[in-house]
Amino acid sequence: MEGNILLLAGLLATIWITLGVYIAGRFYPNYNHKTQFCSELGAAGSPTEKLSPLINNYPLGVLFCVFGWAVTQVASDTLSLTFVGWLIVIHGVGTWVAGFFPMDKDPYTDAPTLSCQIHSHAGFIMLLSLLVAPIIVAFSDVAIEFRVFSGLSASAAFFYLYKMSRAYKLRHNLGLYQRISYWIKLVWLAALSVLLWQAT
């Protein structure tokens, strides 16, 4: 039963971050989810600099790490899923680092602080970890339906990541595309959570 509960941490993380970002945004005057990064909620000097990592990064890091570890335990004889579990743990650690080192309030600054640089590198690792994980699952030996779902999720997340990079240059709707890309990966994570929970 303990294993079942831990495997649901992936589903809980998806629900938690959705509520956490919404709640933090309510305490940030004039915050726009379509045009601003999620990380701007915890940016240095923002109204929610302390609140956002407290309700988002730190508890989410725990949930990601717990879920990733649980995946490695139930899939100890499957190399691909074990690797996916560790990628999720890495995502959790990156979530902690990104929360502890805030980005600069202006995401377009020409001279980012050291804290912002560390935040950006942690964010890149987070992005890569949950982009690679579904690709690995797509070529694993899990049910064919979930393999197809994983491949489609990775493709859709990459597409909206590309849209975000273009939106960043145009300074238009970058927050919207960031959220779509990230939440596609989170929905995949939640689905993996439920799939493995049901299988144990």
TrEMBL record:
The keyword Membrane applies. Keywords: Membrane, Transmembrane, Transmembrane helix. InterPro entries: DUF998. The keyword Transport does not apply. It holds the Pfam family DUF998. It comes from the Bacteria. The chain crosses the membrane at residues 6-25, 58-75, 81-101, 122-140, 146-162, 182-199. This is DUF998 domain-containing protein.
